[in-house]
Design goal:
This protein is an alpha/beta fold. The strands form 4 sheets. The chain has a 10-stranded mixed sheet with strand order 3-2-1-4-5-7-6-8-9-10, sandwiched between helices. Helix 15 crosses helix 20.
Length: 515
């Protein structure tokens, strides 16, 4: 179990042994285990016949670790310079191996832990203060970059267990700051099996100062895998999930001509989200009476991913924009105002700092775009990019929760065309190349803003796009002619090229109802 104050998971000896076998074989002269805990890596490294050193801050762990043949330094790693403060008897190849804390700075703050670094710039690591100056950074990332910065003169191989997101962040930082990483590999591990935690974790290994800089990484599906399944890394200054697939995906990697939006955030589902049961009701089945103008159909990420586009949930939307003064509801929507006040303990108790100094009962992720009749939506949490065209339900625009991303449209034909473009092979190659499906949120606004729809148009077959668009329109019980769809496609291309204004392109063609 993790020690919350220090954020550590003690590595089982069996896993430590597997890790050492997975590291590229070499005659190591020195082995360092930072934040060594009870020293399980050091125990297993005895067979390497190298000089062994561990660093540990917790006294109880130090006593256990000293049962090995290693020298155990009882110090806080954050107060050391690892290149200057460790005296080695041997020279030669240095292996750094271990399992640093799996927590963020903010989590340690909540635990009132002092076991965290000061927010200062590391020596010889320009720009690092930009990361550690934030309120929340991963402690393991800090330790990774500290090791690289302070030991780079000794050309180490650094191999640590960490979350996969940490490994990607470290590789990005190394590329950004041009740190001398010459090779990298990542072996997936089963964190549930070894640590009983539901996170995506790995053994991440890099070689420092052993050749020309290389910011790509071989990914192995397990510690036992003999060959990588793919490579990820930095190509053209951008992080890509599959280097080889990016040969196709890079052709549409640019800038999306339409701004993606995130769904609505309210942090009070029990109050703001209602169930459709012959009218809006609470989850416990009690009818709720609020003014109709403030009640809208709601879809969540699983609804979008599973294509369950129907009315089963409502959401209360008390504002059209964040700046709206909700006090006016007392006069224009007295039933809603009474309902919100009846649930004020929940709404006023929302803990996120975004609600501070904002209108009472406010929500985020709303604007004029929220009320557009047609939207393209995608789940941010699922392991595949499935784009859905969504039209009004019960004559009302549909809202999405903040696990979804959306593009708003006034015109169904144009919405169908863009949905079709996102459903073509060039667009799918883009997501195959760039999405990290093991991430907690594989699809992000940052990723979506990278897809160049104009480039997709140039690579896709227009007749195929029209056919896909017609399929999406039929799913929302609308239809449009091939001619109208082709003209809509041509007009969007002109808009994206700056040859036609957006205002003149939104209401020329409208799809017709099938019924």
């Amino acid at each position: 179990m993790a020690n919350n104050e220090f954020g550590d998971f003690q590595t089982p000896r069996a896993l430590a042994a597997k890790v050492l076998k997975a590291i590229p074989a070499q005659a190591w002269s020195r082995v360092l285990e930072p934040t060594c805990g009870v020293g399980n890596f050091l125990h297993e490294a005895i067979a390497l016949d190298a000089e062994l050193v561990g660093v540990e801050v917790q006294g109880d762990y130090v006593n256990s670790a000293r049962l090995t043949t290693a020298e155990i330094i009882h110090r806080d790693i954050f107060d050391m310079h690892l290149g200057n403060d460790i005296s080695w008897n041997a020279d030669g190849p240095l292996l750094v191996v271990g399992n640093p804390p799996w927590v963020t700075n903010a989590q340690l703050s909540r635990f009132d832990s002092d076991n965290r670094p000061d927010r200062v710039n590391l020596k010889n690591l320009s720009g690092y203060d930009a990361m550690t100056g934030s309120s929340n950074f991963d402690i393991a990332e800090y330790i990774w970059l500290k090791l690289i910065a302070e030991l780079q003169g000794q050309s180490p191989t650094i191999s640590l267990l960490c979350k996969t997101q940490v490994a990607r962040n470290v590789l990005e930082y190394c590329a950004q700051f041009k740190l001398p990483v010459s090779s990298a590999s990542l072996h997936m591990i089963d964190a549930k099996k070894w640590f009983n935690v539901a996170v995506d974790a790995c053994l991440f290994t890099i070689s420092v100062n052993k050749g020309s800089a290389n910011y790509t990484c071989d990914l192995y599906e397990s510690l036992e895998a003999s060959a990588p399944s793919r490579r990820f890394g930095i190509i053209d200054g951008k992080l890509v999930a599959d280097v080889d697939a990016y040969k196709q995906g890079r052709m549409v990697d640019g800038s999306c001509p339409i701004e993606w939006r995130q769904g609505m955030k309210h942090d009070a589902a029990a109050v703001m989200e209602l169930v459709e049961a012959g009218g809006p009701t609470t989850r416990s089945g009690h009818p709720v009476s609020v003014e109709d103008n403030y009640l809208f159909p709601l879809l969540k990420c699983t609804d979008v991913f599973r294509n369950r586009i129907g009315l089963s949930k409502w959401v209360i939307v008390p504002q059209r924009a964040l700046s709206d003064d909700t006090q006016q509801l007392a006069h224009v929507a007295p039933e809603l105002w009474a309902y919100l006040n009846a649930n004020a303990d929940v709404l006023d108790g929302r803990k996120s700092s975004i609600y501070r100094k904002r209108p009472r009962f406010c929500v985020f992720g709303v604007g004029d775009y929220s009320f557009a009749p047609y939207k393209i939506a995608v789940s941010g949490l699922h392991k595949s990019a499935e784009f859905r065209l969504v039209g009004p339900l019960r004559g009302k625009p549909v809202f999405f929760d903040d696990t979804c991303y959306l593009l708003p449209f006034e015109n169904a034909t144009e919405a169908a065309i863009v949905t079709a473009l996102l459903d073509t092979e060039p667009a799918r190659n883009f997501f195959r190349a760039l999405a990290f499906w093991d991430a907690k949120r594989p699809i992000t606004k940052k990723l979506l803003q990278r897809i160049d729809l104009s480039a997709v148009v140039s690579l896709a077959d227009s007749s195929e796009v029209v056919g896909i668009a017609q399929k999406h329109l039929s799913e929302i019980e609308l239809t449009a002619s091939e001619e109208d769809l082709l003209q809509a496609l041509e007009r969007l291309v002109r808009v994206w090229a700056g040859e036609e204004s957006i205002s003149s392109a939104g209401d020329v063609f409208a799809a017709e109802s099938l019924f």
